[in-house]
Amino acid sequence: MAAYEFTVTVRTQYLPEQSDPSRSNYVFTYAITIKNTGTVGAQLISRHWVITDASNHIDEVRGLGVVGHQPLLQPGEQFEYTSGTQLATPQGSMTGEYFCVAEDGHQFETRIPEFVLSLPRTLH
Length: 124
Hints:
Residues 1-124 form the ApaG domain. The chain is an all-beta fold and 124 residues long.
């Protein structure tokens, strides 16, 4: 039986050099690794992000592919990319899903687990 599954892992980083807290502008990058952990080759077609800041302001982003790519991943293959977002608060979170189509025509969604965007903790 065919298994349709991508696994998503995320690493985040705060960019103080691009942020301006005095203007409520906090910039973060996130590095995503998408791995085909299923048994059928599949292509990532589009994405849907839900970005929430600490004030519960929500931005939704939809678009084709990721960073200009629609990677086709065979079982065991992975694709990595880095992107970024800006928040009006020093903390927030992101979650969403990728819409994928397998080589046999089966359509499925891959959930992007929620991850936190936050300034690093500093000791005084």
